[in-house]
Amino acid sequence: MTGYFSRWCVGLLVMSLAPFSVLAGQDKSVNDSAVKVKWGYKGDIVPERWGKLTPAFALCATGKMQSPIDITQKIQIVPHGLSWQYQSAPMIIMDNGDTPLNLDGHQMIINEGHGVQLNFKDSPPREMITFLGNPYRLVEFHFHSPSENRWHGQSFPMEMHFVHQGKAGKVAVIGVFVKAGEANPAIQQIVENLPKVEGRPFTIKGKRINPADLMPHGKAYYHFKGSLTTPPCSEGLQWVVMADAITASPAQIALLRKAMGGDNARAVQPLNHRQISFSAEEN
Ligand SMILES: [Zn+2]
Known about the structure:
This protein is mainly β. The protein has 5 helices and 19 strands. The longest helix is centred in the last third of the chain and has 11 residues, at 250-260. The termini are far apart. Zinc ion (ZN) binds next to β11. The site of zinc ion has 5 residues, from β11.
């Protein structure tokens, strides 16, 4: 992807039919209330303006449990409740892709617009985690640069988001900070197979990726409630941010940043009344 147009994205969401129920039966097209609005990280569609672009994005401005956040305080120590059942999967890579999610019973198609995304098949569901006793399936992971969440004010060159679908409209995202250091073999596979065409998934023949290879060795994590960091900024997500970072080489970070069209990070949002918990690694 190249040039200015890679830096904005189209948010597509299928809203609840409730606001339009009065029109049901009169005009079918009204019930198909998909909203497409451009949003991005530069110009007049920057994150600070998302909430004003369309009423469908209002939560970006008015939400009280928004992501990302700065992980600084109000930390409560709780037992560890996260395990991974990830395994090697076909490498399906996409630039500027749509992701279907069920969030609190709302079927949505979100477009993270982050430029580089890896998708995982849902049948059979294989790349699983268990979080607080509930199973979740890995739908996709993608990159932000610089990091969106912060740790005591500190930003990292990149952050990965692993987006998981649970039952009954539950969504859990695992954030992994990426710092500059040793080259990362799993990230190298990705930078060598960056998609050349937007909006279409490519299965890279003969290549597989195991998301476990992109998790830090330390399993301690922070947990809090939050939102999508992109429009429509829907809330009710379980957020897990790993305490330890992984590394990627400066060259790998530069290549991913270039593929994503530069910065794609929303600023940190107020914590408000949320609590951040911390779980040390299980022995
Ligand atoms: Zn993200």
